[in-house]
UniProtKB/TrEMBL annotation:
Residues binding ATP: 11-18
Gene3D superfamilies from the UniProt entry: Guanylate Kinase phosphate binding domain, P-loop containing nucleotide triphosphate hydrolases
Organism whose genome encodes this protein: Paenibacillus prosopidis
Coiled-coil region(s): none
Protein name: Guanylate kinase
Length: 205
């Protein structure tokens, strides 16, 4: 069986990765979402095992020590990481997996999974980005300023990605990502075993 595709959706803080990812998952229920582990406290309405696996610092460090994370990164004072086992098992079962992670983690995933599909979500403008970071309304002024300067630095990392998607409108951005995934499934390399099998069957007949 063909392995599934690993899709890594990343981009600067506040660009709307979370929203785009959840709308995309509704449009593509066959896409399996990897739930991350984090040391950040749950926000209102967030559910353990659905939004994140919420961990203490000690538990998170233990996961790192056990090599249970595919990647991890520190982001504005908290740790975030992708549980390795789930991703590897799901890909092996032939299903596509999507990670919605910040840029440092995405670069680490690229080292381990160079065949992954790396999608960089871009804000339509810097003003819009600032508004989105502020508009979340749950963060302190310090955190907002911190996130804004991180976001500007993060924009430089676009060159490591396969695709850039402008998040001017959520549905349009999701359609672009869906098109990327469909096109990636049509890459000729994926069909070589199929064609080889067909040729062998013809020759045998
Ligand atoms: P938030 O605290 O707003 O849920 O997420 C903060 C940032 O952490 C977002 O940019 C999100 O994409 C990123 N993030 C979520 N899970 C992971 C993960 O497993 N690994 C990494 N590297 N970043 C993550």
């Amino acid at each position: 069986m063909d392995k599934g595709l690993l899709i890594v959706l990343s981009g600067p803080s506040g660009v709307g990765k979370g929203t785009v990812c959840s709308v995309l998952r509704n449009k593509m229920p066959e896409l399996i979402y990897s739930v991350s582990a984090t040391t950040r406290l749950p926000r209102q309405g967030e559910v353990e095992g659905v939004n994140y696996f919420f961990k203490s610092k000690e538990q998170f460090q233990d996961m790192i020590a056990r090599d249970a994370l595919l990647e991890h990164a520190e982001y504005v004072g908290n740790y975030y990481g992708t549980p390795r086992d789930f991703v590897e098992r799901t890909l092996a079962s032939g299903k596509d997996v999507i990670l919605e992670i910040e840029v440092q983690g995405a670069l680490k995933v690229k080292q381990k999974f160079p065949d992954g599909i790396f999608v960089f979500l871009l804000p339509p403008s810097l003003d819009e980005l600032k508004q989105r970071i502020t508009g979340r309304g749950t963060e302190s002024l310090d955190t907002i300023n911190n996130r804004m300067s991180v976001a500007v630095e993060e924009m430089n990392l676009l060159r490591h990605y396969d695709y850039a998607v402008l998040n001017d409108e959520i549905d349009a951005a999701c359609d672009r990502i869906r098109s990327i995934i469909i096109a990636e499934h049509c890459r000729r390399e994926r069909f070589l075993p199929y064609v080889t099998g067909m040729k062998a069957a013809i020759e045998k007949a």
